[in-house]
């Protein structure tokens, strides 16, 4: 059944040129994008249904020779960690196409890049060969550069270039680290390298280089400055994927590659990672509070939320890791929803400035309620996705790092504070915008509604996810033992 | 340490790059006798007194003539040993020389058609 | 046997002379046929060489003066392929400038002939003569746009520095001859140990480094690449560079094998300096052609990693890199050749909004630049993969680190061009001239090859590995 993954990753690659060629008619290119993204989603769901849950290890593996001269194979496969992320990515890719339904300006190029981005994102979460992983990781860079640059906001040039250079530096350092691994391990194959012992200096150098790559992408605080610029200036659908999927590549790499290949080093590094996680959580939350731009708020909130994933990874108990993986999914969904809502509000009211907004609840009730649902989910309301993820993180981390966990929990309070405060300012109260626009139509609300439904679905019945994720992360867990 | 010895060659490279021009200038300074004389500053014109400023422009065709002359002048250097040893070299050498002369003739035809053989 | 093996070169020489003669007697309106004749000659030579390469020819000619081995044939194929692409682009370019005489084609063919003989030489004198044929033709080509003073400047600067390098080369050769009593590559090295041998080697390497535009000898490149006709710049930055690299590799690896390799450190420094200077200097350029000139200095630096590492993997990697580099660099210069008019038109601002005016050209340029930057789905990434891996494997991890750091630097200037191409807003301007059929073919082939070798690099890599037979 290995072809399922191959097809899911390859489908958008086939659709991209079709969209580009249809560019002469502005309304046409979105159709191939819709077909391929739904196709990828269907194939991912099929993969999930074929996947035998409750057991660790890679499934649906495919190995195709690609560059035999260097022993590079198109080695794809999923386990309990990557399958949820694959599903989330495919779902977000399809939602994003719906959210981009109204794009008419140079739509051929737009949907070309969007689909190429999907290839990169889907590929990263399925690759089991380090070069293939890097290939997809880097492949996601170019489309994002164009999406920000061509359809972005006023400071798009600066934001696009900054994004490119920061994440480019991260991934190229990762590339070099992979080459060193290839040299000492004799292969690019991830599963083989996990059982290879490396000389200690090599371990240290490679681990440091890889952590730099993940830290830029995640982002870990001193390296985060590209994120607010990129998120704010990117067009709404690109922001959704940026926050929803691209950030998760960093934490996924951290778990899959750094923890997978260098467990001992990772364990030793965990306390440092925990400190970085807490800094991320508190720093992101405090800065989010100070934002006046809705997108900026969600951007800094994302930095804060990624901290919880780092904390879970650092704690290393089965429960915490389970929560960390589910948090990747949950944050992906909810961040996408909030960015979409911010984009819709911007379109409706002509501004994203929080002080200039107000009373949306009466003017655009559906949009407002769905946004509120997203905000409530984000601050960890039980029954919604983020709670299902953060709760195990806190439970699992407390055993390992009680102080840090308490500090991190304070972040929740801050999150609740800025989100509720913002909701109060923009949703309730008198309308303040200059222009009164008609509420968005049903088609425009569809992606928002889908995302909201997914939050509820994950939050109400998370057991199926725990069942999927559990066995895989328990292989990696070291602190605290069983759940 | 032996690793750094490899870089000795880089140093040698740099050193020579600096030393050669400096040394040449210095040697000139030290060795050359200096007896300044206004006559010495004049342009050399086969022993004749310089009639005018020596930077006056020449017709560029003069150079082209000179070039064409040199080409055919040098050709004889090849032709001469070839002619002496012709009996022993056989047909192959004959064809070779024909090809060689042929290429030169193409050059001459080219120059001719481009009116380079006409003096204004 | 000897003559039959050299048939591709003979075809080329014959075509060059025929074009030169026919040019004199053809009326002006029929000059276009000369281009087609040259293309036919080049294609025939390319076909012949490719067949020899496929057949695995390994022939020592005329008592070892020439060696047609897979290594030489690989580079001959590269040079011929590059020349064919350049020729395709030249046709409309020269027509636009009103300089579509046969001389250009004859000179190009002679330059190619020089490069072909150069890479197959195993004798220093023959190397020198072939390189002079390449050089002198190149000087004339660089200055071909006679009314344009910048073209004259390009030719003069190239000429002056080229003569200097020739002198250094000749001096080095004379030292080697004095030390060893021979000009044969396989004999010279063994008999030239000692410090004087090192001096000679440095001088010889300097002579070739100029053609590669490696750092201490790079000064001519920006002015020449900017001022010369764009297709000529494409030729100089690819075919000429590849040929010089091939000879350098052969001289070092056969005459001065790695066991004696003091030159490895020397080339590590030269490669590092080329990467740094090329990439940093390119950052500040507003003229795209000049930026590409600095970029190709940097690209030369990447390739020179192979000589520092000097393992078979590294040399194979450099073969692969040079082969794909031909496509991307000729392609990039070619796109510019369509845009430039007599008044310039190669500034960043001139590229604004090209994607809307000429989508195909913009797409092609984007592919070439992304490939030069070494991004996925292009051949450039595969080239960098092999080169940097070879560096790590050969114990030069620091050089690989240096390379990847400057690769990130290069993202800035390559992607800045993309920004202008795709979302610069341009004032309305006269449309660029329509591309002709041969130029379209050349550009299409280069684009396709850049993408294809980026996705399926295996056959070309196999060929590169195969072509190393002579190095043992």
Account of the 3D structure:
The complex is a heterotrimer of chains A (483), B (120) and C (472). Chain A has a two-stranded antiparallel ribbon. Chain A is mostly helical and 483 residues long. Chain A contains 20 helices and two strands. By secondary structure, chain B is mainly α. Chain B has one domain (2-113): Methane Monooxygenase Hydroxylase, Chain G, domain 1. Helices cover 68% and strands 0% of the residues of chain B. Chain C has 472 residues and is mainly α. Chain C has one domain (2-471). Chain C has helices spanning 2-5, 7-25, 32-54, 70-97, 102-120, 124-142, 149-180, 185-188, 195-212, 220-227, 230-255, 263-283, 288-309, 312-339, 354-357, 359-373, 379-393, 397-423, 437-455, 458-466; strands at residues 59-61, 66-68. Chain C is globular. The A-C interface holds A 66-70, 109, 120, 131, 135-136, 138-139, 141-142, 145-146, 149-150, 156-157, 160-161, 164-165, 168-169, 172-173, 175-176, 179-180, 182-183 and C 355, 370, 375-377, 381-382, 385-386, 388-389, 392-393, 397, 400-401, 404-405, 407-408, 411-412, 415-416, 418-419, 422-423, 457-458, 461-462, 465.
List the quaternary state of the chains.
heterotrimer
Give the count of helical stretches of chain C. Answer: 20
Overall structural class of chain A, as computed from helix and strand content, comes to mainly alpha
Mean pLDDT of chain C: 89
Instruction: Estimate what percentage of residues of chain A fall within beta strands.
Output: under 5%
Strand content of chain C: under 5%
Strand order of the largest sheet of chain A: 1-2
Please summarize the sheet with the most strands of chain A.
2 strands, antiparallel
Order of helices and strands of chain C: HHHEEHHHHHHHHHHHHHHHHH
Average predicted confidence as pLDDT of chain A? 91
Major β-sheet of chain C, in short? Answer: 2 strands, antiparallel
Write down the overall geometry of chain A.
Answer: globular
Radius of gyration of chain C: 21 Å
Write down the Rg of chain A. 21 Å
Overall structural domain count of chain C? 1
Pattern of helices and strands of chain A: HHEEHHHHHHHHHHHHHHHHHH
Helix residue percentage of chain C: over 70%
């Amino acid at each position: 059944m290995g072809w399922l993954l191959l097809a899911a990753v390859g489908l958008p690659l086939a659709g991209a040129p079709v969209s580009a060629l249809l560019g002469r008619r502005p309304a046409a290119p979105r159709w191939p994008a819709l077909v391929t993204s739904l196709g990828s989603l269907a194939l991912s769901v099929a993969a999930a249904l074929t996947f035998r849950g409750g057991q660790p290890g890679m499934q649906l593996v495919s190995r195709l020779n690609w560059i035999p001269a260097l022993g590079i194979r198109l080695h794809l496969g999923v386990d309990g960690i990557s399958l949820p992320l694959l599903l989330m990515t495919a779902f977000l890719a399809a939602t994003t196409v719906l959210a981009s339904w109204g794009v008419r300006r140079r739509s051929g190029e737009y949907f070309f890049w969007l689909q190429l981005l999907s290839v990169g994102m889907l590929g990263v979460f399925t690759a089991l060969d380090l070069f293939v992983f890097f290939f997809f990781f880097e492949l996601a860079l170019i489309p994002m550069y164009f999406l920000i640059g061509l359809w972005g906001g006023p400071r798009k040039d600066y934001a696009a270039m900054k994004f490119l250079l920061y994440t480019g530096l991260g991934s190229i350092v990762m590339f070099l680290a992979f080459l060193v691994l290839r040299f000492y391990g004799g292969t690019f194959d991830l599963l083989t390298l996990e059982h290879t012992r490396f000389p200690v200096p090599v371990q240290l150098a490679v681990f440091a280089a890889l952590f730099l790559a993940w830290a830029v992408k995640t982002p870990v605080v001193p390296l985060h400055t590209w994120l607010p610029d990129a998120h704010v200036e990117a067009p709404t659908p690109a922001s959704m994927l940026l926050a929803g999927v691209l950030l998760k590549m960093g934490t996924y790499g951290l778990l899959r590659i750094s923890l997978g290949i260098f467990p001992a080093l990772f364990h030793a590094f965990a306390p440092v990672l925990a400190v970085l996680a807490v800094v991320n959580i508190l720093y992101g939350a405090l800065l989010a509070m100070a934002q006046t731009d809705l997108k900026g708020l969600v951007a800094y909130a994302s930095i804060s939320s990624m901290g919880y994933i780092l904390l879970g990874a650092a704690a290393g108990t089965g429960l915490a890791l389970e929560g960390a993986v589910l948090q990747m999914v949950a944050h992906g969904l909810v961040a996408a929803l909030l960015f979409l809502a911010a984009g819709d509000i911007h379109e409706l009211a002509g501004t994203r400035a929080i002080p200039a907004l107000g009373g949306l609840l009466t003017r655009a009730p559906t949009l407002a309620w769905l946004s509120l649902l997203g905000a409530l989910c984000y601050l960890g309301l039980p029954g919604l996705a983020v709670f299902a993820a953060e709760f195990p993180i806190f439970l699992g981390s407390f055993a390992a790092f009680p102080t840090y966990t308490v500090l991190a929990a304070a972040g929740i309070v801050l999150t609740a504070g800025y989100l509720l405060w913002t909701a109060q300012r923009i949703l309730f109260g008198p309308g303040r915008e200059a222009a009164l626009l008609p509420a968005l139509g049903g088609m425009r609300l569809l992606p928002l509604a889908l995302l909201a439904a997914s939050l509820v679905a994950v939050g109400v019945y998370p057991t199926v996810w725990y069942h999927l994720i559990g066995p895989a992360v328990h292989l990696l867990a070291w602190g605290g033992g069983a759940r | 340490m032996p690793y750094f010895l490899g870089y000795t060659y880089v140093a040698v490279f740099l050193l020579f790059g600096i030393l050669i021009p400096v040394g040449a200038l210095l040697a000139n300074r030290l060795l050359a006798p200096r007896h300044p004389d206004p006559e010495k500053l004049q342009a050399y014109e086969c022993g004749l007194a310089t009639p005018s400023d020596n930077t006056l422009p020449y017709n560029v065709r003069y150079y082209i003539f000179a070039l064409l002359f040199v080409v055919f002048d040098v050709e004889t250097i090849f032709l001469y040993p070839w002619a002496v040893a012709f009996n022993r070299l056989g047909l192959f050498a004959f064809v070779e020389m024909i090809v060689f002369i042929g290429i030169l003739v193409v050059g001459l035809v080219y120059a001719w058609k481009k009116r380079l053989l006409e003096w204004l | 046997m000897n003559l039959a093996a050299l048939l591709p070169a003979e075809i080329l020489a014959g075509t060059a002379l025929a074009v030169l003669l026919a040019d004199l007697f053809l009326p002006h309106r029929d000059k276009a046929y000369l281009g087609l004749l040259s293309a036919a000659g080049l294609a025939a030579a390319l076909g012949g060489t490719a067949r020899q390469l496929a057949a695995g020819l390994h022939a020592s000619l005329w008592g070892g003066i020439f060696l047609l081995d897979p290594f030489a044939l690989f580079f001959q194929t590269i040079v011929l392929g590059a020349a064919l692409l350049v020729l395709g682009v030249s046709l409309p370019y020269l027509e636009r400038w009103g300089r579509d005489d046969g001389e250009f084609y004859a000179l190009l063919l002679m330059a190619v002939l020089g490069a072909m003989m150069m890479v197959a030489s195993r004798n220093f004198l023959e190397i020198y003569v072939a390189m002079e044929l390449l050089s002198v033709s190149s000087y004339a080509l660089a200055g071909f746009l006679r009314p344009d003073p910048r073209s004259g400047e390009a030719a003069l600067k190239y000429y002056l520095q080229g003569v200097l390098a020739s002198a250094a080369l000749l001096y080095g050769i004379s030292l080697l001859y004095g030390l060893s009593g021979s000009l044969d590559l396989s004999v010279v090295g063994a008999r030239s140990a000692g410090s004087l041998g090192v001096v000679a080697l440095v001088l010889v390497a300097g002579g070739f480094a100029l053609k590669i535009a490696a750092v201490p000898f790079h000064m001519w490149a920006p002015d020449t690449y900017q001022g010369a006709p764009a297709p000529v710049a494409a030729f100089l930055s690819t075919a000429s560079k590849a040929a010089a690299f091939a000879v350098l590799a052969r001289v070092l690896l056969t005459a001065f094998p790695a066991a004696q390799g003091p030159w490895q450190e020397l080339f590590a420094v030269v490669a590092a300096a080329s990467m740094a200077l090329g990439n940093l200097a390119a950052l500040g350029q507003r003229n795209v052609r000049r930026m590409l000139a600095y970029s190709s200095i940097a690209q030369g630096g990447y390739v020179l990693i192979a000589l520092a590492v000097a393992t078979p993997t590294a040399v194979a990697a450099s073969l692969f890199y040079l082969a794909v580099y031909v496509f991307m660099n000729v392609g990039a210069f070619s796109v510019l050749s369509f845009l430039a008019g007599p008044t310039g038109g190669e500034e960043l601002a001139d590229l604004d909004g090209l994607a809307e005016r000429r989508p195909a050209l913009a797409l092609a340029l984007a592919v070439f630049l992304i490939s030069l930057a070494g991004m996925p789905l292009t051949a450039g990434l595969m080239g960098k993969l092999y080169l940097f891996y070879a560096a790590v494997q050969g114990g030069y991890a620091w050089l690989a680190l240096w390379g990847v750091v400057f690769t990130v630097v290069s993202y800035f200037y390559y992607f800045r061009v993309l920004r202008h191409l795709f979302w610069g807003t341009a004032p309305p301007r006269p449309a660029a001239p329509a591309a002709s059929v041969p130029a379209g073919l050349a550009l299409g082939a280069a684009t396709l090859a850049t993408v294809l070798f980026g996705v399926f690099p295996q056959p070309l890599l196999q060929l590169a590995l195969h072509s190393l037979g002579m190095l043992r």
